[in-house]
Structure formats: structure tokens, C-alpha cells
Design goal:
single chain; about 325 residues; alpha/beta; 9-stranded mixed β-sheet; 4-stranded mixed β-sheet; about 25% strand
């Protein structure tokens, strides 16, 4: 099932943007400790790397590019510095067809940046500096663009930026025309928990809630994914998607629970941005009227494409590519 043609829907991605420096190594001097989720380097060693690549990333950057590739009138709302990294980040968005008029440039400060140490098996560690991402506040949040959007995607926020939740709640509660809303909570929101008044109110207006397994348990205080999903649904989230690595996705709406597997035997070059690719695919599909099983297929197909490329944006699919793969790729989504 593929979506029917329609005018380019207006989307707005809100959150972080980051200049990424990828450092890739074959892993011969890196120990992977999967039990403790760690990459270990020998102290004092000189570790040879295969390549160093500069790329653009960050949740709102990735999702806005993802929406633009899928044919949406995509906007980005976030903050960059007046440095060369900020210039390159905005140039990348514009080159990808993203509307950057809702972006704010802060003079005299550094844009967010990260160093991503990646090994050949796809595992990575990210060293991150928040930079100007911490300056997303009410004064830098584009209320008018948000009100005119058909879909808002709220990515991870820095702790100081959570104040814009009140603004988003006001827009979602009082809009004359319904606005679709995808929420991927950040660490501070997850720590506050499902009972937090602001989180509670935001969930009531959430169309698609995105969490991984560990986040869902921490956010809800439940002991299983199924119970966590049920708790989020009871608070008002229309669709809840909980990702669980190689075990795929557990998702539910008002009618059913579904399990969507991962695509088998596909190359994994880098896992960075796969979650953003999944969230964009699901949101795009729901925005275009597809049911939840097909939305899960779209999200998984998009995430798999991201896994097959270095960086968070290179593998994001276009609308034509997505429609072709929805027709050709077999992915057995089952009701449970």
C-alpha cells in the first residue's frame, strides 16, 4: 500500500542540529564490550583510523531533511552559531530543500558539534558538545510557523529548552485545524516521567510517540514494553512505537498491537540517525493516510536505508524511493 498523491504537506522539525565529525576505525585496537555497552580504547595507544568525515546531523536537522526528501514542505526550527559550522549546517539544510527561515543564528557562539567514533560493525560512541542547541527557548521558537504546519516533529531537547513544551501544548490545544504531532522525548523529559504535568498534557496531543525499550521503561516506570506502551496510550498518545534493536518494533494504536521485524541480511555501516529515519518514515506515512502496519513498514524501510550509509542523512529515502520499496520489500507486520 502506497500513499495517494497530495500537495506537499507543511512540516516543522523542532530541536537540535549538530556538526558531526565521524572517525572510523576497523576496530582492531578497539574492544567492544556488548555486555556493558562500551567501546574500550587502550590508554596511551596510538589508534589508527581509516577515515575522518565531516557531516551534518542532530535530530531536528535529520528529520527535516527526511521530510524534505519525502516530498514535504519541510521546515527546521533550531539554533546555530555564527561560526563556520553554523554556516555549513544551514547550507546543508537549504541544499536539501529545507526551509530555514525558522532557524536562529546566535552571534559569537559555537554551534553544536560531536565526534563520533565508529567501528566497522556499526557500533559507535558519540562525544557531544551542546553548543547553541541550548539556546532553543520561547524567543527562538517560531510559533507562527508551528501554527501553520500540518505536522510538528519534536526531537530531543536540551534540558534548558524544555520550556517550549508549554508553547507547543498551547498551539496543539487551541489550533482550529488539527496538527499532527510526533514526539521523541529527550533525557530530561524521560527523567521527569509520564506523570509530569507537562509530559501528561503533551501526551494528550501526541499523534506518534517514539521511544526505545530502555526509554519506555524509564519514562513509565513499567517493567515490560507492553505495559509501557499501554501506559502511554492511556495518557492519550494515539500511536506508540517502541523500538528494540534487532528485535524490531512494538507499536500500538486504539485497535491493535503490532510487531514489526527488522529487515534481515542488510549491511550495517553506521547506526547514527536510524531512529530519526524510522520516526520520519512512520510520521510521513500517517500524514499521508496509511494505516499503522504500513507506517511501521515505511519507518523500518527508511531506518534500514540509513543504516546502510555513513552518517544520519545520506541514506534517507526520497518519496519515489519509498513508494517503490513499499511495493517491493516484504516485511511481515503482525498483530499480537
Amino acid at each position: 500500500m502506497t500513499p495517494s498523491p497530495r500537495p506537499h504537506p507543511r512540516t516543522l522539525s523542532v530541536g537540535g542540529i549538530t556538526f558531526d565529525l565521524f572517525v572510523r576505525t576497523d576496530g582492531s585496537h578497539v574492544r567492544i564490550d556488548r555486555e556493558n555497552h562500551a567501546l574500550e580504547l587502550p590508554l596511551g595507544a596510538k589508534v589508527r583510523v581509516d577515515e575522518i568525515i565531516e557531516m551534518c546531523g542532530g535530530g531536528a536537522s535529520n528529520t527535516s531533511v527526511g521530510f524534505a526528501r519525502l516530498g514535504c514542505d519541510a521546515g527546521f526550527c533550531g539554533v546555530v552559531g555564527s561560526d563556520q559550522w553554523g554556516e555549513r549546517l544551514l547550507e546543508n539544510l537549504q541544499r536539501q530543500g529545507v526551509d530555514t527561515r525558522s532557524a536562529t543564528v546566535v552571534e559569537g557562539e559555537n554551534s553544536s558539534s560531536s565526534i563520533i567514533l565508529s567501528v566497522s560493525s556499526g557500533e559507535r560512541v558519540i562525544l557531544y558538545n551542546a553548543g547553541t542547541n541550548a539556546h532553543l527557548h520561547r524567543t527562538t521558537f517560531d510559533h507562527e510557523r508551528a501554527k501553520r504546519s500540518e505536522w510538528i516533529y519534536l526531537n530531543h531537547l536540551q534540558e534548558d529548552s524544555i520550556v517550549i513544551q508549554d508553547d507547543l501544548i498551547g498551539i496543539l490545544e487551541h489550533t482550529v485545524r488539527p496538527i499532527g504531532f510526533t514526539w521523541n522525548p529527550g533525557g530530561a523529559q524521560i527523567e521527569a516521567g509520564i506523570a509530569s504535568p507537562d509530559n501528561h498534557r503533551l501526551l494528550a496531543h501526541t499523534t506518534v510517540l517514539l521511544l526505545n525499550k530502555e526509554e519506555s521503561l524509564a519514562f513509565t516506570g513499567e517493567e515490560t514494553m507492553e505495559a509501557a506502551l499501554a501506559s502511554c496510550r492511556k495518557k492519550g498518545a494515539r500511536i506508540v512505537c517502541i523500538t528494540d534493536g534487532e528485535n524490531g518494533v512494538l507499536a500500538g494504536d486504539a485497535a491493535h498491537l503490532y510487531r514489526c521485524p527488522v529487515l534481515e541480511e542488510v549491511p550495517v555501516i553506521d547506526t547514527t540517525g536510524a531512529g530519526d529515519g524510522f520516526g520520519v518514515g512512520v510520521s510521513w506515512a500517517i500524514l499521508h493516510g496509511l494505516d499503522l502496519p504500513n507506517a511501521l513498514r515505511a519507518g523500518t524501510i527508511n531506518a534500514t536505508s540509513v543504516l546502510g550509509s555513513l552518517g544520519a542523512q545520506a541514506g534517507l529515502l526520497t518519496d519515489i524511493e519509498m513508494q517503490n520499496r513499499l511495493r517491493s520489500v516484504h516485511l511481515d507486520v503482525q498483530a499480537v
